[in-house]
Amino acid sequence: MASKGKKGGNASGNSDEKAWEEVSRNEFVVLQKFVGEKAPSKCGRVISALSGNSVLVVAEAATADVLAERMGEFEANTKLFISAGLTPAKAVETLRNNNLTVAFKEMIEYANAMEKVDKAVGTVLYTLAAKMPATCARHRKYIAELCAAKKIRQTNVEAVGKYMTRVGDKDLDVEGFEGDCGVGVVVTREQIAAAIAAAIEPVRAELVAERYAYDVMGIFKGLRNVESLKWADNREVKEEFDKAILCILGEKTKEDMEAAKKAPKKGKKDKIRISYKGNVGIASRAIPRYDLVDMKDYVEMSYEALRNSAQYGTGMDFEGASRYAAANLGQQIGGLKNPEYYNPYKNYTWETLIDQSTGKIRSDAKAAWNENWLDEISDNSAIRTEHIVSVNGGSERANYVASLGYYMEDGILQNTDFSRYTGRVGADSQAKSWLKIGMNANFAHSESSYQSFEDASTSNVWYTAQFMAPVYPVYLKDMAGNNVRDADGRLQYEYGSEDDNGYANRPSAQGFNSKAELYNNKAYYTRNSLSARSYITFGTVREEARLYGLKLTMNFGTDYTDYQRTLVYDKEHGNAAQQGGRLSKTNTRTLSYTFNQLLTYDRTFGDHSLNLLAGHEYYRYKYNYALGEKTGIVGGIDELGPAVTTTDNNSYSHNYGVESYLARINYGFKSRYYIDASWRTDGSSRFHPSDRWGHFWSVGASWRISEEQFMENTRQWLDNLTLKVSYGVQGNDNLGTYYAWQGLYDYTWPNATDAGAFVDKLENRKVTWEKNGNLNAGIEATMFGGRLGVSVEYYNRKTRDMLLKSPLPISTGFTGFNDNVGSLRNQGLEVSLRGTILDKRDFRWDATLMGSFNRNKVLSLTGGQDVITSDIRVIEVGRPIYTFYLPKTAGVDPATGKQLYYAYWTQTVNDEGTLVNTRCDEYITDNVAMATLSKYYHESREPKLFGSIGSTFTILKNIDVSFLTTYSIGGWVYDGLYNGSMYVQYAGNNWHKNAKRRWQKPGDKTDVPMLEVGGSYATASNSLIDASYFAIKNITVGYTLPKRWLKKIDIESLRIYATLDNIAMFNHMDGMDPQYNFTGSVAYSYTPSRVIAFGIDLNF
């Protein structure tokens, strides 16, 4: 609910106003004067850093120490938010909204210090932070990492926002979420080009014969139904389609233009065409696992860590430390209850297992079990299948299409799956020479069972199973190490708790079992969606008509989604065991519609071509959410009725609208010179009526140099050479809330039988559109009859008036307010080469090579600041936004085995005799505290160069072979998972094999310090991993049967194929996935799937 609230007092220059204002029932007040009179001197620096109109909120009776503490919190939180991409003013405004502060702060911290990002990432990240309700707290880390890694982008942010709003605090169906929302899906230009080529190929002969008189746009419209392009950038699809048509047909001639005007585009279709596409495949994990030590190494390294703590921590000699380690090994690994239960080597006790003279397990020790947790939860032969049947046809005046589809995949996690049924119908008709109408509708029904936990939660099976120490069994054992089966002879899960058998006491993930989480808990959903589009066009197709070229088109589209999710948590084990199990039901409904009216005029007069457009558009979005949750469930009944205690009931709705007016002009002269200009104004319900409208424009020009007289001598080999340049300003209204300007009240504070509320968000009537200025300049060329194509494009994008939260002192009771702050620049170069290397009678080789680089720079930060640091990254004017800023290691001390660091801070005693930190010349130390203070600039995550390489081979005209690879050179990633396995903090977590090269005795020279469990280390440069990689994304081999074989059985074409997706990736760290990651962090969730599939394309 939105409401106008009280305005906060502005103490600056307003001394006549009363000293304080009451702004909440907690008697917090706005008091600039109090700050000046009561603040201790040590807070002076903080006060001077505040902007002129900023105020602090403190209790009336607050002491100076309380104020100092509040201002310290304010400064720390402000810096944290600025490091996440907010300007200082926006960070202060954000701190005025307590809910958003909590959400954004957790997303920053849990994602290993988010940072200032470009428009795409920053907008998405902040949008979702603000959009997700407080009940989504447990999902924030996962979502933040996906946003930072650009696995959530503008193409799918709406889907993600809707999905997460429905999820709330319930378990997230990760597989279903990522599948339904296109998370991590990056459709490259090569993939777009391949899909376009596949769409063109069945009609290529007709297209070449009819040239531009063929229904070219019909092919393009058909791309909307190509599943692989669902999450593709529409602009890139259009550009690649235009390039493909140009490569096949060349530029339009005057004859093409005349032929295209004489008849409706689809007039030649007068037969029914039936198509079937189907494939079946097997999916498995695509990314290798982290290379962790085995059971034997784990036990020996645990023993060594204990010995190190005694020998180097307390000063024992080697023999005494060895005895100490042997005596305590059982308790560290096996727990306090009965340590021998977790000893897999049953012919020895923990104390006698290790030969103390060598530190190794005795040679005759035999393990009673060796169960790999990740193996137990994985399915490396998960089935995936897809089938699509379509019918299309038409006549001179009408065309229709209908299709049905089915998709099913088993997850690479056991007991997870996803299925989807789809249907589509469409028709259009040239009813009269002056009237054309059409419509299409798409329906989808999907169901999924999934694993609902993410991040470092113990219930996140990806995390727990991957790093669980190998000594712990998956299945329940007796003291002799034998499996204990139930009454039906089935294996039982080992939960690591005393309830299992009276003596289990696993020190890690006690009460949990990763495989049991998949089978005993339930998380499933169904989703039904309907999308419909219709249009009506008034405008004659008769050239002799006076109004030929003038058309009025009205388009109407609507989208409806109904989503129902059920979560059931086991009543015997896990998170809800103490509550007797927990069950929740979530239902959401989304309805949106778009209505536009477009008036166009398109004519050619001799050497002049003119295209004009004027239009109006209205978009409306409505969302409804309802949740019910109970505990004390009845096993086997997934309904709320039988459950005992209601723990949550909630519902809410959202409404949003945008109205737009637009105009465009395109002019061409002699098919050589082109100019275009556009203008639009958009009004968004997110903003106050006085600042609701944003005005945006663009201008552009292109010059077909190849058509000039002075280029005549090149026409034998140069088909096209075009120079183009454009500049435009686009707008963005997405701040992550539908109520950007309003003051809001939180009505979740009941007062007995009456509703209770307090001001939750301050209004700002001046917040308005974010603007993005884009300069693009490029050159395109095709040569040798289309055999070689070159495209080079430079872009420079400046974002200003960025929509972010402007923070306020947290002591005001508000985290901030919505505002326009900050500026950022992205610039880069994209180069594309496409060519036919060989074109023989029985062999053709087409290849593509793409390379890009992007450089971003922070241009300004509000509040006069130039540098903001947070954890391991820095935001600094003039630097890339992905720069790492963290301590620098100096190797390992050969004498002590301790990690060494460079430092420029030290501790000294001041005149009062107090120990203080003092800046000094650089030196080397093992002092973690001083190293943590001494941060250095390192390289950023941003790659030096990234792109793709692909090729298609046609052999004997019937065999096609293609591959697609991607690459990235340069950049760094901080892999927290790897860091945690090198510097183990908790007993029960496994070590990485790189820890085997650790320091073991004085004189050892290595880069890995001595083993410790729970040791103190600075997060330093040795945890940065080179993010360069080379990935083989796809290999496809197909065979198209000769048409002469098929004519006899009335088949138009038949192609059989085998395809391999995500085949291999070569990088600097097994287990790490640096793809699509542009902020330098890693995720705790699903890895990409490797799929081997076989299929057919059949056309009648």
Give a brief description.
The protein is built from 24 helices and 39 strands. By secondary structure, it is of the alpha+beta class.
Average pLDDT taken over every residue: 83
Strand content: 35-45%
Q: What is the helix content?
A: 10-25%
* Alpha-beta classification: alpha+beta
Poorly predicted ranges: 1-63, 263-269
The number of strands is 39
Shape: globular
Give the biggest beta sheet: 22 strands, antiparallel, barrel
Number of helices: 24
Write down the Rg.
Answer: 33 Å
Head-to-tail CA distance between termini: 57 Å
Write the layout of secondary structure elements.
Blueprint: E1 21-22, E2 28-30, H1 32-38, H2 44-49, E3 57-59, H3 64-83, H4 88-94, E4 95-96, H5 98-110, H6 119-131, H7 140-148, H8 157-167, H9 174-181, H10 189-200, H11 204-210, H12 216-222, H13 234-249, H14 254-262, E5 273-285, H15 295-311, H16 318-334, H17 350-353, E6 354-355, E7 360-361, H18 373-377, E8 382-394, E9 398-410, E10 417-432, E11 435-449, H19 461-467, H20 498-501, H21 514-520, E12 522-538, E13 550-569, E14 582-605, E15 608-631, E16 645-669, E17 673-684, E18 693-704, E19 718-732, E20 744-746, E21 758-761, E22 770-783, E23 788-807, E24 815-839, E25 843-860, E26 867-870, E27 873-876, E28 883-886, E29 889-892, E30 899-909, E31 915-925, H22 928-933, E32 936-940, E33 945-955, E34 959-969, E35 972-974, H23 976-982, E36 1024-1026, E37 1029-1040, H24 1043-1046, E38 1053-1067, E39 1089-1099
Antiparallel strand pairs: 1-2, 2-3, 4-24, 5-8, 5-39, 6-7, 8-9, 9-10, 10-11, 11-12, 12-13, 13-14, 14-15, 15-16, 16-17, 17-18, 18-19, 19-22, 20-21, 22-23, 23-24, 24-25, 25-33, 26-27, 27-28, 28-32, 29-30, 30-31, 33-34, 34-37, 35-36, 37-38, 38-39
